[in-house]
Write a structure and sequence with these properties.
Layout (H helix, E strand, L loop, with lengths): L1 E2 L17 E8 L3 H12 L4 E4 L6 H4 L30 H14 L3 E3 L3 E8 L2 E7 L5 E11 L20 E2 L12 E5 L3 H12 L3 E5 L14 H9 L4 E3 L3 E5 L3 E5 L4 E5 L2 E4 L7 H6 L25 E3 L14 H4 L2 H14 L1
Parallel strand pairs: 2-3, 2-7, 3-4, 7-16, 8-15, 9-10, 9-15, 10-11
Antiparallel strand pairs: 1-5, 5-6, 6-7, 12-13, 13-14
Helix pairs in contact: 1-8, 4-5
Length: 346
C-alpha cells in the first residue's frame, strides 16, 4: 500500500532548511512512549530520529506546575534507566529531568519544534516533510514510521458561544493569576477536581460545573473526598447535572436542573478532556474504527493497516484515552522493535 495522503499542503516557495535526511525509523512524537520506541529501535541496531512539534515530553511540560503523578516512579521508567526520587509520587519537575537524562544517556536524535506536515511514499521508503518555527521545510526519508503523538495537545471543545474568548483555558498551569477572581471550572475528572482545589486554596472564588451527578469515581482517592468536603462546606460552589451554555466577557450562563443561571465570572477552565489527532492518523493512511476511533493494527506488533507504519502509546486506544498511560505505553517500543528487527533483516 502506498501512502499519498498529504496532511497539509506546503507552499513551495519556502526555502528548505537542509537536505533530505535518511533514517531507518522515524518516530513522530517525543513523549515517553516515543522516546521508548526510539531507544528500543537503537538497541536492535537501527537508526532512529524523533520529531515533535513541541518540546521534549511536551505533554508533561504542559501539566500543572506543581502536579504529582498518580503512579510510582518505577512505572515511569524507560530504557532500563532507574527513576530516582525521594517521594512516593514523583513530581512533574522530576519527570522532566528524568526524561532529559534518558535522552542524553542514549544520545537520541531529536528534532524538536518541528511539525510533520506530510507523509507520503510506501513501506521501506517513506517521505516525511516537517516545518519548524521559522516555517523552514525539513525533509526526511525513513524505512519505517512509528506514530506516538499522544492526545494531550487537542482538547475536547464545548462548542458553545464565547469559548474562543481569551478568558477561557483548556489547560491548567498554576493558581496565582486567578487570586480574588470568579472562576468556573468545567469537568468532573482529575484535572477539573485538582484545578478547582488548587484555585480555591490560592484565593479564587470557584464554581464547579459538571454534566454528571457527581465527580467521577476515577478521581484520585485522596482528591475526591477533598473536593467533596469543600463543596459540602460551601467553600466551592458546585452545579451537577449542569452544563455551561454561554460564556460572556464577565459572565457565564449555566443550565442547571432547576433553571438557567447567569453567574458573574472572570475566567473559565474547560477541563473536559483531550483526544488524539485523528485527522493526522487518517492522513497517514491509518484506518480508524467507527465508534472509538481505534487505529487498525496488529496487537502483537502494533503495525497498522498501512504497511510499515506503527502506532504506539495512547493513540492505540482511540477515544478511550484512560486505557493507556505511560505505565503501559512504554512497553510498546519493545513490541515494535522486535518486529522491526525481523522485517528489516529480511
Amino acid at each position: 500500500m502506498e501512502v499519498e495522503q498529504v496532511v497539509e499542503t506546503l507552499p513551495r516557495t519556502q526555502a528548505h532548511a537542509q537536505h533530505e535526511i535518511w533514517t531507518d525509523v522515524m518516530v513522530i512524537g517525543a513523549g515517553p512512549t516515543g522516546l521508548a520506541c526510539a531507544i528500543e529501535a537503537q538497541k536492535v541496531g537501527l537508526k532512529a530520529i524523533i520529531v515533535d512539534k513541541g518540546c521534549l515530553v511536551n505533554s508533561i511540560y504542559n501539566y500543572p506546575v506543581n502536579m504529582n503523578f498518580f503512579t510510582t516512579p518505577e512505572l515511569l521508567e524507560i530504557g532500563d534507566i532507574p527513576f530516582s526520587t525521594a517521594l512516593q509520587k514523583p513530581t512533574r519537575q522530576e519527570a522532566l529531568e528524568y526524561y532529559r537524562k534518558v535522552t542524553e544517556f542514549y544520545k537520541l536524535h531529536t528534532c524538536l519544534y518541528q511539525r510533520v506536515r506530510a507523509v507520503s511514499g510506501s513501506n521501506g521508503d517513506f517521505r516525511i516533510t516537517a516545518t519548524d518555527r521559522q516555517e523552514r521545510i525539513h525533509d526526511y526519508r525513513a524505512r519505517k514510521i512509528v506514530v506516538a503523538t499522544g492526545y494531550y495537545d487537542l482538547p475536547n471543545v464545548l462548542g458553545i458561544p464565547g469559548e474562543d474568548l481569551g478568558k477561557v483555558f483548556h489547560y491548567y498551569r498554576e493558581p496565582h493569576p486567578f487570586y480574588d477572581c470568579d472562576v468556573v471550572v468545567i469537568g468532573g475528572k482529575n484535572s477539573a477536581a485538582e484545578a478547582a482545589l488548587d484555585l480555591w486554596r490560592h484565593g479564587a472564588r470557584v464554581t464547579a460545573v459538571h454534566r454528571g451527578p457527581e465527580f467521577h469515581s476515577h478521581v484520585k482517592y485522596w482528591v475526591k473526598p477533598d473536593i467533596e468536603n469543600r463543596i459540602k462546606a460551601g467553600e466551592i460552589v458546585a452545579h451537577f447535572d449542569s452544563t455551561v451554555q454561554e460564556i460572556g466577557p464577565d459572565f457565564v450562563v449555566v443550565n442547571t436542573p432547576g433553571r438557567p443561571l447567569r453567574l458573574k465570572n472572570d475566567f473559565v477552565f474547560a477541563l473536559t478532556g483531550y483526544h488524539p489527532d485523528y485527522d493526522f492518523l487518517r492522513g497517514a493512511g491509518i484506518e480508524l474504527s467507527a465508534e472509538q476511533h481505534r487505529p487498525f493494527c496488529d496487537p502483537e506488533t502494533l503495525e497498522s493497516n498501512a504497511p510499515g507504519i506503527y502506532v504506539a502509546g495512547v493513540i492505540v486506544a482511540g477515544s478511550r484515552t484512560n486505557e493507556i498511560f505511560i505505565e503501559n505505553g512504554r512497553f510498546h517500543g519493545k513490541l515494535i522493535a522486535t518486529d522491526l528487527k525481523a522485517k528489516l533483516k529480511e
